[in-house]
Amino acid sequence: MARVYLVERVRNAIICTMQARWAIVGGSGIGGLLEELAGRPVHIPTPLGMQRGREIELGSERALVVSRHSLGHKTPPHRVNFAAIAWAIRSAGIRHVLATAAVGSLRVDWRPKTLALCTDFIDASGRNLTLFDTRVEHVPFGSPFHEGLNERILEAAGKERLAIEPKAIYVNANGPRYETPAEIEMYRRWGGDVVGMTAGSEAVCMGEAGLSYACLAFVSNLGCGLVEADPNHAEVLEVAHEVGPTILALFQRVIERGSP
Fold first, then answer.
1. Which end of the chain, N or C, is less packed with Cβ atoms under 10 Å?
2. In this structure, which long-range contacts are made by residues 126-130, counting pairs with CB atoms below 8 Å and at least 24 apart in sequence?
3. For the chain, what are the domain ranges?
């Protein structure tokens, strides 16, 4: 009982002292950029484990930044604690989440460095994630990625003359291996535009937590079989380091406008 009381006191202290109204979640490559930002480290206890992050200043606003794969990119995609991330963000009083994710393109016309705004997803991960293991709760998912946040991102990109594909269906594979040529062909026939290992799962937990969630994906490679070379993580990181600062600057413009 004493431990539960202490955790609750710590959680309440974090909520009282944290002024962030937004969260930014980054994955491969981008997570490292988030870790380099100056800010105040925070540790948010949840029933699913301790969640670490950093509270930073973005102009007149503050944001909680979270590295999806943990400090130093130590957590593989199938082991990311998506539920703990969503729980921590919700517990901190934050309601709006901007995320970015590296993806493989299922379209030959979307080349590496293409930015694509996720509008829907197909879950091929088999993870069966939910925040509702102990009670019956059926959350509607007609808009898994928040339309208002997507509009804000497109508006900010337009002002910066930054090209973004406005609609992308994200296929969530389990990973950590890359997909086979047959899987890529199947995902293409399903109507997918990009494939990744995180954003669909993240959208489920964010949605069940009642959070407004948007994900701006960046193409790091073409899917296996669409080009001769197999994808590799080195090229993912290379593209992330090139497009990462642009994405973070765009998110700053969105956040500085305030809540939608």
1. N
2. 126/174, 127/78, 127/174, 127/201, 129/82, 129/83, 129/201, 129/204, 129/205, 130/83, 130/204, 130/205, 130/208
3. 2-256
Q: What is the pLDDT along the chain (260 residues), one digit of tens a residue?
A: 343 433 444 444 444 456 789 999 987 667 667 667 778 889 999 998 889 998 988 878 889 999 887 665 678 889 899 999 999 999 999 999 999 999 999 999 999 999 999 999 999 999 989 888 888 889 999 999 999 999 999 999 999 999 999 999 999 999 999 999 999 999 999 999 999 999 999 999 999 999 999 999 999 999 999 998 888 888 888 999 999 999 999 999 999 887 77
Please answer whether residues 73 and 32 qualify as being in contact, where contact means their C-beta atoms are separated by less than 8 angstroms.
yes
Q: What is the DSSP letter of 243?
A: H
Q: Is 94:23 a contact under the CB 8 Å cutoff?
A: yes
When the candidates are 3.60.15.10, 3.40.50.300, 3.30.43.10, 3.40.50.1580, the CATH number that belongs to 2-256 is: 3.40.50.1580
pTM of the model: 0.90
d(Cα 3, Cα 98) in Å, to the nearest integer? Answer: 33
Under 8 Å CB-to-CB from 155, ≥6 apart: which residues?
none
Distance CA 115, CA 131 (A): 30
